[in-house]
Specification:
Low-confidence stretches: 256-261
């Protein structure tokens, strides 16, 4: 049987699937913009006017992390775990569609949606919010960091879905991790340094912590020690990679048991 290769219609098919996932639209588009607006208004109510742009910018940086977490973690995990549970990848394979081609289409579709979310987020904050104008290197650093975080979350979500092979387990675990990570990285009102010491140490292994807490300090330029930030990326990326390898090993043994059984 001829194997079908990665192509544009497959991306379009995945985008249509994503369009039916209201979770991506709400948590990836509505939620970060709405929370940014509400938290900024509440935080700026009792501070001098000259400090409000900095506070609004800090909130904006924190809420920008909701997009990769919602789209690549919750959204991807919800869709892919349902497909795995229903045997969609196996049926696609029987119709000659390579699993690698299917994965590439999913990744492309999710990154397209993620890019659209970033554009909507940027337009909203430019038109509605009083954020500080960034230095070009700082803006580039933020964008690269968001895409890197998105990739790590996609790998992690794919691995969790492959390990549990059920939507209920996958969604429950990822939703729990989602809120835990929001607390640890200072995204929902409690700053990381206000947490117990043990939780602070855990938070320092996550790159989202540095984006949420530190990026505002060099948003308009200046010096910053990127070493802890890079180390956090390496640690989280390595952890996601190890979990992915375990999921591939487990998936391979599962498929083998189905064939021999």
């Amino acid at each position: 049987m001829m194997k079908k290769k990665f192509c544009v219609p497959m991306i379009w098919y995945e985008l249509r699937n994503l369009n039916g996932n209201l979770m991506c639209h709400f948590f990836g588009v509505v939620f970060p913009n709405l929370m940014s607006l509400l938290i900024s208004k509440a935080s700026c109510a009792q501070v001098p006017a000259d400090l409000r742009p900095q506070i609004t910018t800090s909130v904006m940086l924190s809420m920008s992390l909701v997009m990769p977490m919602a789209t690549m973690f919750l959204g991807y995990g919800a869709l892919y775990s349902q497909e795995v549970e229903q045997g969609v990848p196996l049926r696609m394979h029987l119709f000659g569609i390579r699993e690698n081609s299917l994965m590439l289409a999913k990744i492309a579709a999710h990154f397209i949606l993620f890019t659209v979310e970033i554009l909507i987020f940027a337009v909203f904050h430019i038109l509605v919010m009083d954020v500080q104008k960034p230095a070009v290197p700082s803006l580039v650093c933020l964008l690269v960091s968001l895409y890197a975080v998105a990739l790590i979350f996609l790998v992690l979500s794919h691995a969790i879905a492959n390990i549990f092979c059920k939507f209920s387990y996958t969604f429950g675990i990822e939703m729990s991790l989602y809120f835990i990570l929001m607390v640890l990285t200072g995204m929902i009102g409690v700053r990381t340094e206000q947490l117990p010491e043990l939780l602070q140490k855990i938070a320092k292994t996550l790159p989202m912590t540095y984006i949420s807490n530190d990026f505002v300090d060099f948003w308009q330029g200046g010096q910053y020690n990127f070493m802890p930030f890079i180390q956090a990326f390496v640690f989280m990326g390595a952890a996601a990679g190890i979990i992915l390898l375990f999921s591939l090993w487990k998936s391979g043994r599962f498929q083998q048991s189905r064939i021999t059984g």
